[in-house]
Write a structure and sequence with these properties.
Strand order of the largest sheet: 6-1-4-7
Radius of gyration: 19 Å
Structural class: alpha+beta
Number of strands: 7
Largest sheet: 4 strands, antiparallel
Helix content: 40-55%
Distance between the termini: 23 Å
Order of helices and strands: EEEEEEHHEHHHHHHHHH
Shape: globular
């Protein structure tokens, strides 16, 4: 099976069992009450599942998000590590299951779309609540690192550590402990997102220059990181 990519926002709400799901080369283990988002520029695929596995799948176009582009609707989630995986509270989990059941029972048409829109609204709200919890407990230095890299992914680790007043090893350990992801990996994902933005805006398709502008030191480095995180070559991904 090859990884897929949707123009729409995709959501996977696990009901029972467990699955392993790959997004941009990262594999996540998900069990009951897990909600996974695959953003519209990410490649993703189901890797494996247990025999008792079941989930709801939602593919949400702009029309189901109140006319708001999917990239804007999920921006609150992407501001914090561009998170893909959320562990829902029991109350939110049951609410989303109830709304999904209603959407399934009414068939197609206006009522169905209305239920899907309400599901998306409540799911995004539940995940933003989780993000708020993360911000409250996360050390200020890690939050500043996230903000700095998200704003300027070309920042170097010495520049980042100097701005935070911490050694590179110290901020690296803090970041890994709080987010579960290395600082380097997070910065690389932000750099790839910047390449995406530059390629979308560029009048030409100078991929190498876009990679340099995003902070990569060489095309070789960019190619290695891109292939590792997205599972295919840059030129295949951008159809060059």
């Amino acid at each position: 099976m090859e990884p897929r990519r949707h123009r729409e926002l995709a959501a996977y709400h696990v009901i029972t069992g467990q699955m392993r799901y790959m997004i941009d080369g990262r594999v996540f283990l998900a069990g009951p009450r897990t909600l996974i988002w695959a953003y519209n520029d990410q490649s993703h695929m189901l890797v494996s599942e247990t025999s008792d596995f079941d989930m709801w799948i939602f593919v949400l176009g702009d029309e189901l998000l109140g006319g708001v582009p999917a990239s804007n609707a999920v921006s609150p989630l992407q501001n914090d590590l561009r998170r893909n995986v959320f562990r829902l509270g029991e109350e939110a989990h049951q609410e989303l299951l109830s709304i999904a059941g209603m959407a399934s029972s009414v068939g197609t048409g206006f009522d169905h779309d209305l239920c899907l829109s309400w599901w998306a609204f409540r799911a995004l709200a539940a995940c933003e609540d989780r993000n708020s919890d993360f911000r409250k407990r996360c050390p200020a230095a890690v939050q500043r690192a996230i903000e700095t890299i998200s704003t300027d992914p070309s920042v170097t680790l010495p520049e980042l550590s100097a701005s935070l007043g911490l050694s590179e090893s110290r901020i690296g350990r803090l970041f890994k402990r709080e987010t579960g992801e290395s600082l380097i990996t997070f910065r690389n994902r932000c750099r790839l997102a910047e390449v995406d933005r530059l390629m979308a805006e560029a009048r030409s398709t100078n991929l190498t220059q876009c990679a340099f502008n995003a902070g990569f030191g060489s095309y070789t480095q960019f190619f290695r990181v891109f292939s590792a995180l997205r599972g295919q070559s840059p030129r295949t991904y951008y159809a060059l």
